[in-house]
Amino acid sequence: MPRASKRKAAPASSSSVTAPPPDQSRSRTAKATSKTRLKESDQIDNLFDTYANSSLGQIDPEGIETLCSDMKVEYTDVRILMLAWKMKAQRQGYFTKDEWQAGMKALKANTLLKLVKTLSELKKEAEAPQNFEDFYSFAFKYCLTEEKQKGVDIESTCELLKIVLGYQFPSQVDSLVEYLKVQKDYKVINKDQWMGFLRFCKEISFPDMANYDENQAWPLILDNFVDWKKQKSGGR
Amino acid sequence: MLLLFIDRSFTVPSFDVQVKLGRGNMEIELEQGWEIIERGITRLKNILEGLPEPKFSSTNYMELYTTVYNMCTQKPHDYSQQLYDRYRESIEDYINSMVLPSLREKHDEFMPRELVKRWENHKVLVRWLSHIFHYLDPEFIPRRSLLPLREVGFICFRNLVYHAFYRDLRVWVLSLIDQEREGEEIDRALLKNVVDIFVEIGMGRMDCYDNDLEAAMLKATAVYYSRKASNWILEDSCPDYLFKVEECLKREKDRVSHSLHSRSEPKLLEKVQNELLSLHENQLLENKDSGLHVLLRDDMVDDLSRMFRLFSRLRYGLETVADLFRQHVTGEGTALVKQAEDAASNKKCLSEPDSVGLQVFVRKVIELHDKYLAYVSDCFQNHTLFHKALKEAFEIFCNKGVSGSSSAELLATFCDNILKKGGSEKLSDEAIEETLEKVVKVLAYISDKDLFAEFYRKKLARRLLFDKSANDDHERSILTKLKQQCGGQFTSKMEGMVTDLTLARENQTSFEEYLGNNANANPGIDLTVTVLTTGFWPSYKSFDLNLPVEMVKCVEVFREFYQTKTKHRKITWIYSLGTCNLIGKFEPKTMELIVTTYQASALLLFNTADRLSYSEIMAQLNLTDDDVVRLLHSLSCAKYKILIKDPNTKTISPTDSFEFNTKFTDKMRRIKIPLPPVDEKKKVIEDVDKDRRYAIDASIVRIMKSRKTLCHQPLVMECVAQLGRMFKPDIKAIKKRIEDLISRDYLERDKDNPNLFRYLA
Description:
The structure holds two protein chains of two kinds.
Chain A: H1 28-51, E1 52-53, E2 58-59, H2 61-71, H3 78-87, H4 97-107, H5 112-127, H6 129-143, E3 151-153, H7 154-165, H8 170-182, E4 188-190, H9 191-203, H10 220-232
Antiparallel strand pairs in A: 1-2, 3-4
Chain B: H1 30-49, H2 58-73, H3 80-104, H4 110-132, H5 140-143, H6 149-181, H7 188-200, H8 207-235, H9 238-259, H10 264-276, H11 281-285, H12 292-297, H13 301-311, H14 317-349, H15 355-378, H16 384-398, H17 407-419, H18 429-443, H19 449-465, H20 472-486, H21 488-517, H22 549-565, E1 579-585, E2 590-596, H23 597-605, E3 611-613, H24 614-621, H25 625-636, E4 643-646, E5 657-660, E6 670-672, H26 681-707, E7 709-711, H27 712-723, H28 731-743, E8 747-749, E9 756-759
Parallel strand pairs in B: 2-6
Antiparallel strand pairs in B: 1-2, 3-5, 4-5, 7-9, 8-9
């Protein structure tokens, strides 16, 4: 994909920040700290402006791409998705100013360098058991680009699975993706099925799947997947 | 104090004795008194021994009794204790000196005989003596907590005689029983008497009988019958064996009532049953040459009844019989299915549909049901286990289709053949009623009842609309039977259809009146319209057939008429179901042709053209290829060639051309040109599947609405139970519907327990 040709050069729009009147009683360091703080949020805003589409007032897909290449991270890297999660981004491919600011503050990053550094921490955070389900669920929602869209098409689901679960459960994801591509029952995957995939990976031993009970409330697509996989490996 | 002595060797016609019971000042010495008493006792003993003795009068008794009385009441020397002891000693003495020796010298059956006699005597002796010593009973004995006189007397016999001889007695009893079993005549009275000893010696308790006799008898019985069983099982056929068993049981029961104590009956019979039946049940029933299968095959009703009677005595005896019965019926049914399949595949080679064969198959299934139901009610006394076995067997093979047609379809076709005019079954009214009754019974075994309903409805529609129904009463009758069996919802649409026809006739009358009153509303052709209520009838695709000009006016006229009747309803014309009478002016002679509206529309095209191509016809009629092919085939390649096809092949192809056959003729003046119906099978199955999806949805929502939360398994189970009356829902289908309902926000999965669903209002 071509690099974004335009670079924002607008000045920082932090002119609304007014410095408090100098107080003789304030220490020098305090003065300096507040100045630094100001400087930080300025920097965050500046960074935003660097990548944002000025007419939109948001960072658009091209901007994100540029950001990625600047960070020397692949666009399809899971950490970008995690970044979106951290920012609670609502719309795939776009970051609003508020989202950006909130995210960067939460990451305690105000420069590109710092952002890059925090990415690995962010990964650990997202992978933490108490957070991962939330992140996983977000990843699906993030793909629902149309209004009232309830399902994600098979192609995209497969890609998403690889990104989000591929490194944790590689063999399950490989099998699942293979199955999703050959099966004809479903053209889209809904939220319930998506969440089912995660539960499957976490709870079911693989590849024997001995503790899978189709009489439980697993989504039907997983029942079919298990049957298919068992048949493939020579049946029972 | 007056005492009455009622005794068998001593009668008291009147008792009027002055008894001097005065307490004189004369004290009786122990030995003195005892001498008197003993003399009396000796006399009694002699009488028992059969020695010559003058009769013992009441005066004698009184004397003795009074002596005892005095000796017990006098003061200061109250000899109650001594008298009590000597009472016992007298008895013991008598036993030791007279009874035991006489017994010891007897052998074989003389010993029991003697013992019986001695026991009877002993009872008398004890009675007499108890009377004499009676005064001890009310006060002395209870005061000292001693055993009563009578008991003391019996205990003496028991300890001295019974304990010495009971084993020999037992041996004798058991051997006598075995002799009788082997068919020999025995002395039943003696046997009874001996057995009674075991009973009576227990003095109110059955210990002696139970432990000393019964236990051994039961064991011996088991041994005896075990031996018999191992012989018989090798030699006898199952029915013969069972006959013997029944005989044995009868005889054993008889024996108990004559010779033994009744409490032994259940235990005894249980032993016999156990050895003869329980232990050999499987071997008997599964016997290849004469077991249950054979009895059923050869209709051996008596033997089957006996088998039932006998095995119902065992606690779990009938389970095995019912199991084998079920296997047998399943086998017979499955064989019928196979037979029908084979016949059908043979016919397939000849490329004919095997409708006759399938009809025969259904009839055979009904006959099979009759046959085995008869066994259940006659031989197996309508026992629930057998009803259940029959039901399970039929459910297994009745749900196997034949040659691609489900049993639901076969059954519906069977009914159609009975109910339609010119159907393959020619039966009397009674026979028809009976058959319909039986068909409905067989329907109970079919799990896809909704599929049957749909096929039935489709065929009913054809019968009603093409006036093919033979008898209105039968139509209504079967609907009543179906309603009784499957509920009102099952038959409501069909009943609606039948009612529609009645209403349609009335409607037609009004229409004709309307035509009569409105001269300009004349369609120019005789028109009959049947108005169907949409919900009741199967769904028909209505194509926009380009009606011939002649018919267009008809449609308009009727529409106007209908508007006068009701403004709130919309009419959709289904031309595919109409019929038409055409006058065909052929060269040989003019003929009347009865055809469908589609066929008529095609033929009328030739009024304005001599020759038309396939595509021209299709364009003019505005029908699908399927329809055009079918109708042209019926007019040019079937029995009556109204059109000449070019080229003259057997099938229609889009490049064909057609010409009106002016030379066509037939010996009849009026012919019906059938248009074979489209195979409805696929559509029916599709419709039923769709209805099932709705039914499952509705059921799930109903359940969840009332339960609010429910786990997956119970939800599925309840759903299956609710829908079971009409069909057996596929578990995967239910799962799919649940997921669909989740995505439509009727339900949600619980956050913590993925197996739990919650109803979303």
